Amino acid sequence: MPAHKLFLFGLDKAGKTTLSHFIKEAKEIQPRPTLAFNLDKWIIKDLEFQIWDAPGQVSLRYVWKNGFNRAKILMFVLDCSHPERFEEAFTEFNQVIMNADTRGIPLVFCFHKWDIDLAQASYNDARAVFKLPLITDRPVFSYRTTVKNLETSKIPSNEDIGGLKLKLVELIQSERWGT
Ligand SMILES: Nc1nc2c(ncn2[C@@H]2O[C@H](COP(=O)(O)OP(=O)(O)OP(=O)(O)O)[C@@H](O)[C@H]2O)c(=O)[nH]1
Ligand SMILES: [Mg+2]
Q1: 57 lines ligand 1 (CB under 6 A)
Q2: Is the entire prediction scored with pTM above 0.90?
Q3: Fold of the 3-55+64-176 domain
Q4: What confidence tens digit (pLDDT) does each residue in 112-129 have?
Q5: Residues 48-97 pLDDT 10s
Q6: pLDDT category of residue 158 using cuts at 50, 70 and 90
Q7: Which residue's CA lies nearest to atom 3 of ligand 1?
Q8: Distance (Å, whole) CA 97 – CA 137
């Protein structure tokens, strides 16, 4: 079974490693900062995803190109509870999205840490900074995500983690069939 490469990126402390484990095993871990790519595997339906969970610290971002090279899906994690870092996050996001090697690769964007009030209050600001509807060279999907207090987090049902996982499968299948 071929593994489909997924590049998971975002600033340090955005929550990438935590979210990755949550998607994989539906449980929360106590993460350590990622210092080199964490390579992990998610099995969803009958598909295997090879997750390239990137280190977000500024001095380590130079390795990102190895993560998006030949990736099938890009997944960006924004700490939505940290508006002071939106511009920095946008700059790093753009470095990847504007890179010719990523042209056409579908993007899944996570407005993460939705359990935090400030994340919910900052959602419109985040959307204004990232302007996702202006990205037209690839399919783009966005989700509000959290690993905490899911029951009370008021995430619309069409943006839940189950739906996100199905979307990943759908993206791979549509690529396979060339649709
Ligand atoms: N409140 C809240 N905290 C979260 C959530 N997800 C992750 N965190 C916390 O955010 C911090 C950073 O999480 P990590 O998963 O290490 O972040 P990362 O993006 O992998 O960071 P680097 O490996 O340094 O790039 C940790 O303290 C997590 O417990 C969430 O959904 N809600
Ligand atoms: Mg990490």
Answers
A1: yes
A2: yes
A3: Rossmann fold (3.40.50)
A4: 999 999 999 999 999 999
A5: 999 999 999 999 999 999 999 999 999 999 999 999 999 999 999 999 99
A6: confident
A7: 113
A8: 9
Q: For the chain, where are the alpha helices, taking DSSP H only?
A: 16-25, 64-68, 86-97, 117-121, 123-130, 161-176
| 120 close to ligand 1 (CB < 6 Angstrom) | no
Give residue limits of the domains in the chain: 3-55+64-176
Ligand 1 centroid to Cα of residue 38, in Å, is 14
Q: Is the CB of 119 under 6 A from ligand 1?
A: no
Task: Please enumerate in sequence order all residues whose Cβ is within 8 A of that of 139, keeping only pairs 6 or more positions apart, or say none.
Answer: 106, 107, 171
> Quick one: tokens of 18?
């935590």
163 lines ligand 1 (CB under 6 A): no
Q: How far is the CA of 54 from the centre of ligand 1 (A)?
A: 13
